[in-house]
User: Fold these one by one.
Assistant:
Number 1:
Amino acid sequence: MVSKAIHGKFVNPFPEDKHRKQGDARMTESKGGDGTVGKALDVLDLIASFNRPVRFAELQGKSPFPKATLYRLIQTLTHQNMLAQDPDTGAYSPGIRLVRLAHAAWQQSSLAPIARPHIDDLSRQAGQTIHLAQLDGGQVLYVDKRNAREPVDMFSQAGKVGPGYCTGVGKAMLAFLTETELEAVLARQSFHRFTPSTLTTKDALWTEFEEIRASGYAFDREEHEAGIICIAAPILSNGGRVIGGLSITGTLLKTTLAELESFAPLLLQTAQKIAEDAESWRFPGQQTANR
Amino acid sequence: MVSKAIHGKFVNPFPEDKHRKQGDARMTESKGGDGTVGKALDVLDLIASFNRPVRFAELQGKSPFPKATLYRLIQTLTHQNMLAQDPDTGAYSPGIRLVRLAHAAWQQSSLAPIARPHIDDLSRQAGQTIHLAQLDGGQVLYVDKRNAREPVDMFSQAGKVGPGYCTGVGKAMLAFLTETELEAVLARQSFHRFTPSTLTTKDALWTEFEEIRASGYAFDREEHEAGIICIAAPILSNGGRVIGGLSITGTLLKTTLAELESFAPLLLQTAQKIAEDAESWRFPGQQTANR
DNA sequence: TTTGTTGTTTCACTATTTGAAACTTAATCT
DNA sequence: AGATTAAGTTTCAAATAGTGAAACAACAAA
């Protein structure tokens, strides 16, 4: 495949010069990004997306890079322990070095440590499942979770990703992005119809965003998973920038939208507290919607 | 020059450590890097090692790379969301994209998911703190933990690193490496004396390794932290390869080495069970000692 | 204002990366 | 067994992407 057209050394959508001048700020390309490092990270993402060990040939099929290049990138990543290779099958999976790096990331760049006491409280008071999320490349990244009852089930949940356009936290966060950011994010949504209730058009979303901005919170009306509903609020910095999202989730078997809505004041109040703490802790904040 | 060509596609057995750090901090983390990707990852590691947001100037002081190069690397990483930059202070910290990647890594390349039920059992039976670790670049990387009583405290613990030469799990794992692997690992240890009991010479360690191999388990006799002791065992694959380590930890206030030793059979049995499960789940295993 | 510190860009030079193709296993078929 | 196909690895000339001294901008302090 990939004949002459794409295999250019540096996949640049805009045939500018080799030297990217300051010019157009961050025209962040989602993928195929900057230099060799960007390519390597793409490969990492690709491998991670399989959620199981993958062999070289399979990767080659899904990757735009020519065989030799892909091979070298993988070699490098493996040497760096960013990938682990099964000695028997030769299959690759994300490496443990990532776990170490993520520890630092979670502690420093996520809202989780700051929000912890607050979501503990919220969980106790609402008696429901709580999700704390942030935006990452247009997707919802869950950074913490409280199960109503059971002991925490952390790492297996933190790091999970979900769609931005059909989850409560997703919509709550998107609704408060700037128009530019939103445009960028929407362009990256798949608009897959998960359930009959899923909103699959920009227009439908846009309308809903207005309601969300008006009320301050969003609902997930079984849009991602049948029987699962939630109420969610954005966590906004002083400057009005979206730094995260918070939600209370339940199943239609045990609760109703009306009941969840009764938690709205508590939810908003918690989101507010988290925002304040984040501010005073000089939280890095950098929560741009693009990648 | 700083970046001398390694170019060999296949890493030379012992890559000379070219990036010599001046006024090296405590992190024994500097490993050579292949190509630009390696350098970028070095920078990531460096930033992560600060455990707080760092500004450019500070990084420049600790990094072997010239200003412009460092700058570009950081730019790229930030672009890729591997780093987050505080919009106000301009300080950098590890980015959330890492959290997402780590989720995949933790699930696929760590022993944690497989070992979970077993360490739950062990924790219940021993009523002590349990650590599950793996080797990462000569250091001990904790991938899971059970606190005797309190609910799990996951992400805040998983991803943590510790020295290999003066922790129970560390010694248990090192003792069962091949001589070549061990040599490589020992070369990367700092041999910092944490407490009066810390073993600070290769010889002392070597002797201890023999005992560990004989008994099958290792002790930490306050070598890393005063008052903290533990008993640890390696988790070995069928082929005898070290795939992880497991430990039972206590404080001298509440327990003794003798009491911990009484758990030895249980500990070894658990390690064995985990190994079996790992094997049958075709665990990637790739647990080479070098980076 | 000047000075100093920190962060950003330039630009000539070149070393690293590139990728088609050749090659070496490892598996599968006849 | 030998022949055939697929998977993975290495080569090598070409050129892109990376380098880093130094100039530059932005901003704070003197």
Note: Chain A has a mean pLDDT of 80.
Number 2:
Amino acid sequence: MKNSYRYIPDPLFPNDNFFDLVYQVVRLIPYGRVSTYGAIARYLGAAKSARMVGWALNNSHNVIPKVPAHRVVNRNGFLTGYMHFATPTLMEELLKSEGIIVENKRIINFKDVFWDPSFELL
DNA sequence: CGATTGACACCAA
DNA sequence: ATTGGTGCCAATC
């Protein structure tokens, strides 16, 4: 799985690990929509590895093309990973800029913008 | 190479 | 409805 995108030339990043699969799916999340760790994990066939998805996003900063990690929240619509961005408010700002209603680290219209890869894709 | 670490999710009470 | 406990598993330490 290393055709439609490429990685930074860092030997520390293998080509076919679980992380890369996560990056692929996250890039498919449309503008103005969001998905969840669990939904992505299920889509990858690793239903019980939601935590791995979040962990994968830690490295997403070093990946090319860029991964819209701000579009991934937990199943309750909370921006649980906001502190991993450049500034504590960046994630919220990015989502707002895409028309998503965020209030106090939580997506208000969550069910309206939720994008489930296992359902939307096929 | 065993132990720890998570940007989570599920379930029992 | 809330809450506390447990499962998970690849990457790191």
Note: The beta strands of chain A are 35-36, 72-73.
